[in-house]
Hints:
Blueprint: E1 3-5, H1 17-23, E2 27-29, E3 34-35, E4 38-39, E5 45-46, H2 49-54, E6 65-68, E7 76-78, E8 87-89, E9 93-97, H3 103-112, H4 114-123, H5 134-138, H6 147-181, H7 199-205, H8 215-224, H9 231-234, E10 241-242, E11 249-253, E12 271-273, E13 279-282, E14 287-290, E15 299-301, E16 309-311, E17 315-318, H10 325-332, H11 335-343, H12 355-359, H13 368-404, H14 407-414
Parallel strand pairs: 2-8, 11-16
Antiparallel strand pairs: 1-9, 2-5, 3-4, 6-7, 6-9, 10-13, 11-12, 13-16, 14-15, 14-17
Helix pairs in contact: 3-6, 3-13, 6-13, 13-14
Amino acid sequence: MKEGYRVVYESTDAIDREEGIKAGLPFFLQSTDISTPFIDAESMVCVSNSDWERYPKGRIKPGELLIEVKGKAEKIAIVPDDFPTHTLVTGTCFKLTTKDPDQRYFLTAYLTCKYGQALKDRLKTNLLVSYIAKDDLYGLSIPIASNDFINRIKEVFEHCFALQSSAKSHLSEANNNLLRALNLENWQQPNPLSYTRSSTDAFAAGRLDAEYFRPRVSELIAMLGRDKRTIGDLAPARYERFFPANSGTFDYLEIGSVRMDGTVEAESVPHKEAPSRATSYVRAGDVITSTVRPIRRLSALISPEQDGFVCSSGFVVLQPKLVPPKVLLTYLRLPIFCELMDLHTSASLYPAISELDLLTLPMPNLDAKTIDAICAAVTSSQASRRQSTQLLEAAKRAVEIAIEDSETAALAYLADFS
Length: 418
């Protein structure tokens, strides 16, 4: 490595992303924003300018490796060249630059393969929260690799990032198709400096907050509710409760397991042991959406191989019956729909929208052409994401084969992933 650093923050306050962007504040990258080897820049919150000035060594740079050294210490990310440079990184990650830029790809594959992870696990201190000390990380053994092998690993990672970019592009296409069908693609939101509402309106809505009665909100509700259909009409909630036995384990789906692309990271789903509080089953084809999160809602479509997961109480499980699951997923993730959910969020220590409020929110009817286009775009996005994951696993396995056998055998293995 060329240089490295881990910031120890004395105190930082997270600032709502939208508010921070309007004020031009720096972003704050947390470990929850990392899904090895990618970073979800769209989920980052913001921090104050004073934090930016106070912690200059926490500013990330393109090309750096971010290595999680606290908690599970499993995540690693490569900062892309087009990443927002006005960003501080969390103190749970160590940031480093390799002497040879191409080494970052090999190092990522090695540290996330079974041998690298085993060595990292061995270095964890036995504290309340596991932690890898800087000197121990510096002393971690790295195998010597030829330039040919390092270059091949780099090619695999570059293909991974290209597929990830393609997946995001397809999701954007799905969003645009939906916005176009809703006549919201170029919608100019009315934001007058002042407006009035009668007491009758307030009593009818059961609300007294001025934000709810903004013209942009009433116009949005009118546009989305023109067909007099609700989420609950098209996708009722599932009430199949899970009651744990006295022994055994189950796959417990938590907020941290949901990716921002609408999929579930199966590798991060913990196996819980009974007993536990009663929660809900999720079945193949269900769409889960988070009720707890003040910034943006997380939603995911459950695949057939994930049938029978048990979800936390922070989700509502929806059964799409009169709407395709991929269309429902796209709709739930639209920023304008998330705005409506935020308006129905309770003001408490853990802000959340109730299941009843979610089910009564409007969902318009869509024509067959729009439905087909959205489904095709989401399918393409998920396919690109799967290919990217397969390539990452191939790179990790190739490093293991090089250690166990030879680089020749590893390169032969990678030939099937060209």
